[in-house]
Structures are given as structure tokens and as C-alpha cells.
Amino acid sequence: MSEAIHLETLSITAARDHVRSGLITATALAEQHYERITAVDPNINSYLALSRDRALAQAAKVDADVKAGAELGPLAGVPIGVKDVLTMVGSPATAGSLILKGYHPPYDATVVGKLEAAGAVLLGKLNCDEFAMGSSNENSAYGPVHNPRALDRVPGGSSGGSAAAVAAGLCVASLGTDTGGSIRQPAAFCGVVGVLPTYGRVSRFGLIAFASSLDRVGPFTKNVADAATMLEVLAGPDTLDATSSQTVPARYTAELAKPVAGLRIGVPDEYFGEGLDPEIRAAIEKSLDALRSAGCTIHKVSLPHTRYAIPTYYVVATAEASSNLSRFDGVRFGLRAAESNTLAAMFRKTRDQGFGAEVKRRILLGTYALSAGYYDAYYLKAQQVRTLLTRDFLAAYEQVDAIVCPVTPTPAFKLGEKTDDPVKMYLEDIYSVAASLAGICGMSVPCGTTAAGLPIGVQILGPHFGEATMLRVGAAIEAAQV
Amino acid sequence: MSETAVVTNEDVTRVAELANLELTAEEMPRMARDLNAILGYIAQLNELDTTGVPAMAQVGEMLGLTAAAHGETLRADVVRASVDRTAVMAEAPETDGRFFKVPKVIER
């Protein structure tokens, strides 16, 4: 225990090995993280709640197992944070919203149970945009998260707390969710690895729903190997989630050892257009060079409907949100506005007081798109374009094994820079939403920094259930970084 | 969807009613402005001819992966423990332990 452990760079593999070998106890490792959270997080605001009792009980269990020489799970003693849109018994679940203030869910999300079954020590709940709606974490009712790499900048969103906590060494890994880019974009902004699994790959039971045909749960980690470890724990069917896939998950950690030589990498022109920061372009091109050197072949592919992805997304996602968020009505949980004479008035007042501006904007937009006279023009049209966007990817994957492109057009922007213009903020998702609509898997891997020192991420998009190959490509790019 | 469609304050009020939202006088013009900006952007979809293109609700359908929805992978219909009612009711803003209490439903 005398040897100092550097939390900022501590990987899952190292944490697990240290606990297993007795270099440090799971309890001490959790306590060290809590000390660091106390010291550092006031500047970052990544944690909304700490689950100290539950974490220390689990750590004690792991320590007893180590002592007894019992078999240890792949995450034994590894401190992990959970985005506050997932339920965890003993901790509040706010979804970053006032309307759920004080709500303590009486059940665990499936992914929470899976992490603990693998030995993970869950430290607490992480800040996010309200109901995961946002690209900067500035829509949280509990204050914005600051990017640990540059405190005057946003960490990205909506899983800003999940990305920032990993980047700042406030947990070894974390869970986030991605509806239109909410894992990949903050991962890129904070310089960590973030994985969007294929739709259906990871259970969503216990996830507070935003847009059910798009929402996915996935990990943030400090390296690609850790992401494979996390995904292996998280993936698989769940009888409590009817949309979870029966497809047997690949053995991601074992597959990672396979060489990438011979893989066909697609590069879509549509992702390198006007508005792409030249430093990001250069970093992506360097990543492609690295893949070429590793024996991959690079091919141009076309995803011709890309420019329609954002308008499609903002119809589909808001329509689903307007329906999903109707459950927040002041009756069964969370906030209820005081002094309402009738049920209808209570609904309206509660929702007016409980929801923030962006959530109201999206509920209104979604309700409008679904309302009489507009349904065909907006919702049906968007669903048809969604088919076209998905066909683009299916056609591309007949020619290539993975697609490599930018995650974001710019590096992390300054807090307050885009809050006045929703369309400008939505354009932040320009390279991420198409994959969300198509249901394919994707990830963001750090691939350099700008001259100003801001992290740059490269996006690897795999076909449906193609996580194993995607992770290998990510690892090859990671290996080429100095 | 016409490109000139303009959302008025009255439209916002109507939609807010449908969505059970009560907007303040300050919120109203800002929401109308933002909805117009966003819908103007969404109007780009009109450039595409989607005649005959099937609508896609989620990707499982397109890949033929929604076996569960067709009854092929339904779970066994057996009694299982569910969340304890006491724990659920404890989260309600107003309850007698068995029922959720709400203000009167019918206005007179």
C-alpha cells in the first residue's frame, strides 16, 4: 500500500490487478477516490450524489473475497460512477431535473446490477443534461459540469459528468447514455474513450427514458481495452427489456488481440465538409495513416443522406420525448406543485416548475410534430428519412468493416457560448446523430490535442453488432498515439 | 409542412395545452421564436422524395431483430417478486399508503 497509485491514469486492468494482488484494498481504493472527489470535484461538479454506504459495503465484500482467495469478477474493486439517468437503490435519481428532486428509485437498473455482480464499486451518480437533452451539460438543473482539461469549457453532453469524472480521475470508468451523441461527444471533449453499443446490445431497464428508439447505455473508460472489459460485462439480453437483443455478445476482450491488418476502413466524404476544424481534420487523417501502417486498407464510402440526420433526429427524438415525459405529472414520484385546486392545474404547474427550458422546448416541438395535421408532414416524413439514413450505412458496410470520421466539428467550446441558439447547439451533433438513428455501434477514441491543448476524438462506427471489430480499430488508433 | 409555416403564440398555447405545460408570459415569445427556428431547419426534409419509402420506428424491425415483439421470445409466464408497494408509495408526493392522492378531478 506504500506504492502511490495515480488515480488520474488508473485503468480498470491496473485497479483490478492491484486489488487482486493485495497492493491496495478495494476499500482503500474507494476511499482514495472519495478523497479526490472532495478535493477536486467542487471545480468540476461531476457528481450529484455519492453512494458511500453502498460502495463501501461492496468494497468490503470484494476485500473479503480477496482474503478468502475466492474467484474475483472482471471489475472486482474497480470504482465506477453512474450517470444520474439510471436507477440505483439507495441513491437519488434526478436525471438532472428538478421534477425528480428527492426521488429515490426502489429498484436497480439492470446495468447497475451487472456491474456490481462483476465486482465493481459504485461511487455515486453523475451530473448530466436534464433528461439527457443537451450537448454541453449546461441544461442540468444542478449546475453545469466543467471540462477537467479546461475548466472554462464544457465537457460535452449529455453525459458530461460521466466523461469529466473519468477524465479527472474521480472514477476509473463510468456509465453514460447516448441518444444522439451523448457518450461519443463528451468522450471526445474530455479526452477519454466512450462507446455507443448497438441498439439492443445493452439493457435499458432502469434507464429514465428520453427517446426510446434511440436511447442506449454505454461505458466511458481511460483506454480501449477497458471499454472492451466494460462492454463484456454490460452486453447481453435482459428479460426486463423487450428491446434487448437475443444475439450472443462477442468476447470483446479476447477479440481485441486480433490484428487489424486486412480490415477495410471506410471514410465518408460527407463527414469532412465545411465547418470541420482543421486541427481535427489533421488528427483524423493521422489516425487513418496509423491504420494504413497497421495494414488496413482505406476506402471512400458515401453516406449521401447525412445532412438530413439532424432534422430527422430532432423530429423523432422530440416526438418520443413528448410521449415519454408525460409520466412526470406530480402523482407518483418527484415534485408536485403546491396549491392546485384541480388535477389538470396540478399537472401543468408541476411540469412548468419542474422542467427546464430545453426540456419544455423539446416537449413542445415533439407534441407539435405529432399533433393533428402535422403528423404526416413531420413525424412520418422523419421516419421515412430514417430508413434512408440506415440504408446508407447498410450499403457502406457491404464494402467496408468499419467507418472512421470525426466525432465533433470543433473541440470543446466555452461555457455559455451556444446557450442562446438551440439550432447552433443542435448542430453540435452533426457527426453523431446518423449512427444513433441507424442503430449501429460507435465509439470515440482520443487521437491528439489541438495547439491549445484541447482533446480531439476520432469516431469509429461499426455495423450492427460489430463492436468487436470496432474496438480493434479503436485500439489500433490508440496504439499509434504517443 | 410548408416552408412558410409560422408558429404563432396561439399555436404554442395550443400545443402547450396538449402537452400539459403551463408557459409563463415571458416564456411564450421565446418558445415561439425557437420553434420557428427549429421547424425552419427541419423543413429541409422536404427536399427529399420519400414516396414509397417505408417508415422506420426503430432499427430492430429493419434488421428483423424484433422477435420478442412477435411472441417468439416471450418470457415464461410465471409469478415473480416485484417491487414492494411500500417502497413505491413512499416516493409519492401524497398518499395514504395504498392510493395516490390527487386534487379533485372534475371541475364544477
Walk me through this protein's architecture.
The complex is a heterodimer of chains A (482) and B (108). Chain A is α/β, with parallel strands linked by helices and 482 residues long. Chain A folds into 3 domains: 7-255, Amidase signature (AS) enzymes; 264-304 and 387-479, D-Maltodextrin-Binding Protein, domain 2 (3-Layer(aba) Sandwich); 311-376, no CATH class. Chain A is 38% helix and 13% strand. Chain A has helices at 12-21, 26-40, 52-68, 110-117, 160-167, 184-190, 224-234, 252-255, 278-293, 309-324, 343-354, 357-370, 375-396, 422-426, 433-438, 467-479, and strands spanning 47-50, 79-83, 121-126, 173-178, 193-196, 216-221, 264-268, 297-301, 402-406, 441-449, 455-462. Chain A has an 11-stranded mixed beta sheet, sandwiched between helices. The longest helix of chain A is centred in the last third of the chain and has 22 residues, at 375-396. The radius of gyration of chain A is 21 Å and the shape is globular. In chain A, 62% of the residues are buried. Chain B is mostly helical. Chain B has a domain at 1-49: Histone, subunit A (Orthogonal Bundle). Helices cover 33% and strands 0% of the residues of chain B. Chain B is built from 4 helices and no strands. In chain B, helix 1 (9-18) crosses helix 2 (27-42). The longest helix of chain B has 16 residues, at 27-42. Chain B is flat and about 55 Å long. At the A-B interface, helix 10, helix 11, helix 12, helix 13 and helix 14 of A face helix 1, helix 2 and helix 3 of B.
